[in-house]
Amino acid sequence: MRQYGECLHSCPSGYYGLRAPDMNRCSRCRIENCDSCFSRDFCTKCKAGFYLHRGRCFGECPDGFASLEETMECVEGCEVGPWSEWATCSRNNKTCGFKWGLETRTRQIVKKPAKDTIPCPTIAESRRCKMAIRHCRGGRRTAKTKDKRKKKKNLMERAQKQHSIFLATDRASQ
């Protein structure tokens, strides 16, 4: 290869080889931040700190593409759809009976990444929410509520029994 009258084994950084039967010379790449190129308008390796994408060099990969740090190339990333609406606030699959619950929203993976090393963004989110209906109406009572009512009933029965005994002993003493 010739460059400025000097013969070289290969072209220096930022140049590419032009070969024809009557010439072999190095020409400058026209791509900004290109370290080596295939032709004047197609880069094959970018300078340090830049990512290669479709023959051009970028400071960061364009939208929809992810960077592979080991090769400094931009590859098709994971594409996700829009977020769904927030689901109804619930807790333990119930929409009542608690003060606080969780609501969730999701989105689908539209296109999987070219390489498995590129992670997809989050596809589900949850956040704390206040339940719209705190007390369930007409629902089955929990064991705690049943126990409380049973204890109250037993207390009432014992109190009535003691009162009856007191009245009976009071009448007998008269």
TrEMBL record:
UniProt-annotated location(s): Secreted
Boundaries of every R-spondin Fu-CRD domain copy: 1-74
SMART domains given in the database record: FU
InterPro entries the UniProt entry points to: Furin_repeat (IPR006212), Growth_fac_rcpt_cys_sf (IPR009030), R-spondin (IPR051514), Rspo_Fu-CRD_dom (IPR043601), TSP1_rpt (IPR000884), TSP1_rpt_sf (IPR036383), TSP1_spondin_dom (IPR044004)
GO molecular function: heparin binding
Keyword 4Fe-4S (UniProt): no
Region Disordered, annotated ranges: 140-174
GO BP terms: Wnt signaling pathway
CDD domains per record: FU (cd00064)
Record's keyword terms, sorted: Disulfide bond, Glycoprotein, Heparin-binding, Secreted, Sensory transduction, Signal, Wnt signaling pathway
Gene Ontology CC annotation, any one: extracellular region
Residue intervals of the Spondin-like TSP1 domain: 78-131
Biased segments, Basic residues type: 140-153
Signal found in the keyword field: yes
Family from the record: Belongs to the R-spondin family.
Protein name, UniProt field: R-spondin 2
